[in-house]
């Protein structure tokens, strides 16, 4: 086969398979009574690869004890233990001394597949490739590396674990690679280095022969509990070709020494391990039962996976559950759907376990007990804890005090004992409850907390950075859904916490290895004094306050019932502004930006015209964004506001050119037209606040403008702050002498048309792949979605929605009807692609 050795990556923690993997490395989790890694070994042997190297890290003894030298499985296995978590490519570099004999194949030990490996090897040899990635199609590609290839298979673009806006194809990286030995020279020793994030992009940059082969067959990454169940259903349904131990008799695979009672009914495909006893009158449907398990009379088991040594009592009922080794389930017990029971738990007779709960190892449920909640975790968080740096859940249901206290402990465990965390919240009562529980968890793990109490998140970001805290968090009522509560985590630099930080917290959250410190090391809770005074001093220091005072602005401010009212009147007074305040008191139940604001806006427009105020500002309840109305009573759209603020910034800072500004890819080309007048470079970012914050890492960037009313001035903060934005706009108007209404009539004008198109989740990746193929001949940007530029200076941006089954289409042109026509044309294409197979 021209492969000198096959490498099995077998170091996974299996965090998202907990509680099943509390004491078991992920590759040893059984599929159809056989460890996943054993299925991989058999696949390698089938295609002539009998020299195997296993790279281990987590619970390595479990793997080495099971496989030994490999002779019992018809192969030769060597092992190398990583000294640290060096990443996927780094762990292979760590094993370099074992791989000097020639090209080698790499495969994960925790996937289920029946790919024809001989076909990809032949492809690799024909192309004389340096590296070949085995690819497949996926209906939901978000968790994988997206790959785009040329017609000959050469890879032209690679992106690891994209957002929906970066899903340019449904062709994904399976984690199966063929490498020539010289590729190892590109991997630095003894440091973290990843195939997808580091090695393959480097090879693309170097112009190496990096190819992708789209394989036919079955492949599933068994990454979480839902995927684990689905993998079994696929095996039972015949979707994957793997070896099943035992002898097949009709619809039952029988292991050695099984005992079957009278009138047992087997429905669908059933797999029984060795020494299984099934009592009289039992019903077993589409299930897997591990070796030495005992199912007592009249029990009913539907679509469930039982590991070894499980006892199911008389007349017990299980439906779509997973049961670990040595579990005892009492007589007449009911276990409802999607319950995951870890090793050695004991469930008393007549107990009831409600759906969607998990029991960690060695838990004991008393007879007749009703278990309605997980005995460790909530099922809500089984798949995903963070969305970027945010955690969201239904207020006082999913997002409750118990959850928050445990999350606080997990955050604390991820930090050194004695570290400091800054906390704050909005006025919502649930936010108060959740913040207090989070603080309690942090204190219990030895973390000190500086509580800013009710404080806007921009102020919290600044305090986290300036006070030298390790972390900050803010709890708020979600502006996306008023029935939900958000927890936003802030890094030490004031930006969102990094992905590495969220993954570390998740690892502790899903595990039991959280830290509880002795009583004398419990953290201290402090309430910093004069926080508002500190914020005010920093605010005024960075503005030309005297210039604003001389201008004597007459402005209207709509506080939106939010937190700005607690500090902003004092700031405006210091700036010498004459102010009319609207909605100027805190009301958490009215502090939202909804369709009801239209009446509010009409009223403010009337006030502006009748009383002659120059500018009106609407500050969002979270104090991050603004809307603006001019002396005509005209509310600027968020896109036009971006154009106007950009023009003000460029004019008032023209003496500092050349410099760079950044705006989202969705922003109109009006920004580019204005920037060209000042010889200023424009960088495009993704359409998110996180991407805007990341843009400030570039020291050349002096301004970041958003498309939703948020603006960042890096000399002041690395995040949006609505209060500073108001002050900065007043300063720039005072410096330039511009009037907003006049500026609006003078600046370039482009038209945008928008339309949302429904697309089933499982077709979104396929639509993106066809969009990429269709747009090949156009100039395009692939920053967030696909932005295509036409020959007549128009553009079409197509972005898959991250939170709904939709595509958003935005077309831009000099004429409104042209923009509308482009939207309709692209909508027709998307509708066609979503139906194509």
Key phrases:
alpha/beta; 7-stranded mixed sheet; 54 strands; globular
Secondary-structure blueprint:
Blueprint: E1 5-10, E2 30-31, E3 34-35, H1 36-46, E4 51-56, H2 60-67, E5 76-81, H3 87-94, E6 104-108, E7 111-113, H4 117-127, E8 131-137, E9 146-149, E10 155-159, E11 171-179, H5 195-206, E12 210-214, E13 219-221, H6 225-236, E14 247-249, E15 252-254, E16 259-260, E17 265-267, E18 270-272, E19 277-278, E20 283-285, E21 288-289, E22 294-295, E23 300-302, E24 305-306, E25 311-312, E26 317-319, E27 322-323, E28 328-329, E29 334-335, E30 340-341, E31 346-347, E32 352-353, E33 358-359, E34 364-365, E35 370-371, E36 390-394, H7 401-413, E37 420-425, H8 429-444, E38 448-454, H9 457-466, E39 471-477, E40 484-490, H10 499-510, E41 525-526, H11 531-541, H12 545-551, E42 554-558, H13 568-574, E43 578-582, H14 597-611, E44 615-619, E45 626-629, H15 638-652, E46 660-664, H16 670-677, E47 681-685, H17 689-695, E48 701-705, E49 711-712, H18 722-736, H19 740-746, E50 751-758, H20 761-774, E51 779-781, E52 786-789, E53 795-800, E54 806-813, H21 816-835
Instruction: Supply Rg.
Output: 30 Å
Question: What ranges have pLDDT less than 50 throughout 5 or more consecutive residues?
Answer: 377-383
How much beta, percentage-wise?
25-35%
Give the N-to-C terminal Cα separation: 34 Å
**What's the helix count?**
21
Major beta-sheet overview: 8 strands, mixed
Structural class determined from secondary elements? alpha/beta
Strand order of the largest sheet: 14-15-18-21-24-27-30-33
Shape verdict:
globular
- Assembly of the depicted chains: single chain
Can you give the mean pLDDT?
88
> How many β strands by DSSP?
54
The proportion of residues forming helix, as a percent range, comes to 25-40%
């Amino acid at each position: 086969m021209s492969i000198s050795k096959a490498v099995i990556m077998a170091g996974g923690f299996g965090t998202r398979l907990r509680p099943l993997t509390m004491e078991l490395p992920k590759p040893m989790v059984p599929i159809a009574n056989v460890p996943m890694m054993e299925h991989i070994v058999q696949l390698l042997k089938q295609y002539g690869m009998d020299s195997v190297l296993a790279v281990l890290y987590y619970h390595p003894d479990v793997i080495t004890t099971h496989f030994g030298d490999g002779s019992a499985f018809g192969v030769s296995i060597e092992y190398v233990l990583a000294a640290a978590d060096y990443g996927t490519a780094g762990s292979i570099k760590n094993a370099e001394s074992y791989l000097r004999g020639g090209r080698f194949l790499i495969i994960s030990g925790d996937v289920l597949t029946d790919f024809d490996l001989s076909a990809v090897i032949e492809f690799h040899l024909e192309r004389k490739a340096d590296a070949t990635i085995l690819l497949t199609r996926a209906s939901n590609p978000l968790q994988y590396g997206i790959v785009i290839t040329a017609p000959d298979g050469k890879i032209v673009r690679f992106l690891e674990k994209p957002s929906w806006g970066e899903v340019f194809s449904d062709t994904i990286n399976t984690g199966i690679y063929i490498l020539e030995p010289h590729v190892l020279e590109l991997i630095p020793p003894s440091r973290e280095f990843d195939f997808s994030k580091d090695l393959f992009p480097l090879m693309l940059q170097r112009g190496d022969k990096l190819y992708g082969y789209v394989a036919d067959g079955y492949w599933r990454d068994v990454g979480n509990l839902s995927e684990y169940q689905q993998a079994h259903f696929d095996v039972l349904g015949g979707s994957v070709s793997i070896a099943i131990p035992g002898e097949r008799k009709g619809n039952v695979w029988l292991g050695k020494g099984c005992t079957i009672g009278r009138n047992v009914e087997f429905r669908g495909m059933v797999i029984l391990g060795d020494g299984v006893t099934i009592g009289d009158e039992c019903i077993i449907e589409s299930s897997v039962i591990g070796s030495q398990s005992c199912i007592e009379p009249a029990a009913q088991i539907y679509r469930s996976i039982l590991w070894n040594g499980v006892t199911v009592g008389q007349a017990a009922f299980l439906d779509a559950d997973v049961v670990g080794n040595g579990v005892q389930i009492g007589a007449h017990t009911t276990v409802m759907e999607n319950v995951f029971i870890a090793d050695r738990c004991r469930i008393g007779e007549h107990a009831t376990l409600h759906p969607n709960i998990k029991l960690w190892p060695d838990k004991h449920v008393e007879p007749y007990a009703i278990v309605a909640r997980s005995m460790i975790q909530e099922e809500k968080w089984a798949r995903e804890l963070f969305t970027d740096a945010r955690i969201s859940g239904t207020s006082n249901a999913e997002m409750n005090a118990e959850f928050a206290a445990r999350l606080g402990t997990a955050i604390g465990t991820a930090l050194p004992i004695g570290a400091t965390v800054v906390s704050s919240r909005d006025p919502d009562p649930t936010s108060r409850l959740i913040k207090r529980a989070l603080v309690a968890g942090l204190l219990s793990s030895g973390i000190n907390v500086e509580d800013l109490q009710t404080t806007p998140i921009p102020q919290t970001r600044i305090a986290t950075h300036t006070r030298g805290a390790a972390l900050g968090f803010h709890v708020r009522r979600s502006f996306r859904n008023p029935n939900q509560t958000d927890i936003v985590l802030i890094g030490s630099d004031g930006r969102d916490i990094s992905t590495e930080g969220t993954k570390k917290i998740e690892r502790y959250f899903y595990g039991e290895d959280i830290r509880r410190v002795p009583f004398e090391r419990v953290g201290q809770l402090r309430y910093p004094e004069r926080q508002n005074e500190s914020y005010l001093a920093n605010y005024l220091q960075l503005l030309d306050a005297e210039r604003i005072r001389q201008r004597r602005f007459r402005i209207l401010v709509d506080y939106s019932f939010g937190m700005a009212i607690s500090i902003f009147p004092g700031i405006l007074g210091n700036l010498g502004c004459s102010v009319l305040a609207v909605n100027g008191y805190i009301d958490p139940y009215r502090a939202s930006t909804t369709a009801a604001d239209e009446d509010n806006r009409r009223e403010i427009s009337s006030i502006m015209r009748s009383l002659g105020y120059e500018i009106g500002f609407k500050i969002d309840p979270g104090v991050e964004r603004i809307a603006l109305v001019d002396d005509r009573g005209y509310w600027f759209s968020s896109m036009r506001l971006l154009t106007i603020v950009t023009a003000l910034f460029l004019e008032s800072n023209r003496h500092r050119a050349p410099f760079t500004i950044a705006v989202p890819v969705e922003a109109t080309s009006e920004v580019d037209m204005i920037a060209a007048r000042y010889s200023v470079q424009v960088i495009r970012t993704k359409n998110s606040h996180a991407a805007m914050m990341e843009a400030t890492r570039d020291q050349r960037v002096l301004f970041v403008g958003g498309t939703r009313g948020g603006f960042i001035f890096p000399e002041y903060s690395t995040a949006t702050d609505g209060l500073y934005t108001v002050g900065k706009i007043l300063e720039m108007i005072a410096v330039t002498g511009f009037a907003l209404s006049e500026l609006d009539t003078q600046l370039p004008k482009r038209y945008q048309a928008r339309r949302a198109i429904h697309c089933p989740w499982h077709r979104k990746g396929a639509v993106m792949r066809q969009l990429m193929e269709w747009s090949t001949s156009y100039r395009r940007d692939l920053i967030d979605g696909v932005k295509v530029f036409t020959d007549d200076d128009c553009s079409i941006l197509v972005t898959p929605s991250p939170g709904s089954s939709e595509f958003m289409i935005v077309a831009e042109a000099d004429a409104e009807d042209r923009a509308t026509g482009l939207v309709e044309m692209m909508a027709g294409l998307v509708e066609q692609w979503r139906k194509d197979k």
